[in-house]
Amino acid sequence: SNGRALLDDAYFQGIQTSFHFKNQWLTLFPSFYAMRNIPNIPDGGHAFTLDYSIFHVGGKLNALKSKNIFIDFDIYQNLEDYTSSNNISDEFANEKTGYSVGLQYGTLKEAKNWKFKITYTSLQRYAALDYMAQNDWARWDYSSFDSPDGRLTNLSGIEIVVAYSLSSKANLVAKYYNVNQIVSTGITTETGQRVRFDLNVAL
Fold first, then answer.
1. How many Cα atoms occupy the beta-carbon half-sphere of 32 within 13 Å?
2. Beta bridge partners of residue 28, listed in sequence order
3. Which residues are within 8 A (CB) of 67 and not within 5 positions of it... i.e. 6 or more apart?
4. Are 138 and 152 in contact (CB under 8 A)?
5. Alpha helices in the chain, H assignment, sequence order
6. Positive or negative, the Cα torsion across 115, 118, 123, 127?
7. Which of 189, 73, 176 is nearest to 140 (CA)?
8. Which of 189, 31, 183, 195 is nearest to 95 (CA)?
9. Contact between 111 and 163 (Cβ < 8 Å)
10. Which three-class secondary structure state does DSSP give residue 143?
11. Which residues of the chain register pLDDT less than 50?
């Protein structure tokens, strides 16, 4: 909510489809997300609203499925023009592109299986709505504006995953993240390192 009348408030529309090629060696899922009247800062601390029109293509390549090697990718492009906006500085006006690519070996389908994965991502400031993006890669937030929501764009870095299946319904996952800010918003460039451990159990 941006605190305005219903017809002027923030809203989201989206559409997605998927394509599966022969033997599912390649899956593509293009999407389009239209977001309107979005506050620049969440939870009432905003100074202005803006629109996002994001075209996204994600995919997974199983060309070496027999060897349990997979490649996945995502590409994001915000189609809005911010260059004439008085609220967005020149250094961020064209920061509207993002992508990630991951290489995976192994699966967790059966007990005692191992999975290893490394992913590189680069997500410019307006490639996605930063406080609705994933929140694993860093713990940057809007706490200085009295909001706990994240600032999870304007970053690039890697994710390393090591996972082990205790059974077909339980696994252990360890993740390591190392990220850097693309465009500095302060005196120094923000960085982040995280280690995360998960126990996943399907009932």
1. 5
2. 19, 59
3. none
4. yes
5. 90-93
6. negative
7. 189
8. 183
9. no
10. helix
11. none
Does the global pTM surpass 0.85? Answer: yes
Q: What is the pLDDT of residue 161?
A: 98
Structure-token pair, residue 190: 């923000």
**Which single residue is written with the structure tokens 């390192």?**
193
**CB distance 137 to 151 below 8 Å:** no
CB neighbourhood size of 95 (10 A): 20
Phi, psi angle pair for 59, to nearest 5°: -165, 165
- Residue 81's pLDDT is 96
Q: Which residues are within 8 A (CB) of 127 and not within 5 positions of it... i.e. 6 or more apart?
A: 54, 76, 77, 78, 95, 96, 97, 98, 153
Buried b (16+ CB within 10 A) or exposed e, 59-79: bbbbeeeeebebebebbbebe
What one-letter code names the amino acid at 148? P
* Tokens read off for 128: 């996605």
User: For position 2, what pLDDT does the model report?
Assistant: 64
Phi, psi angles (nearest 5°) of residue 66: -65, -25
Other Cβ atoms less than 10 A from the Cβ of 202: the count is 8
Cβ atoms of 203 and 192 within 8 Å: the answer is no
> In residues, how long is the chain?
203
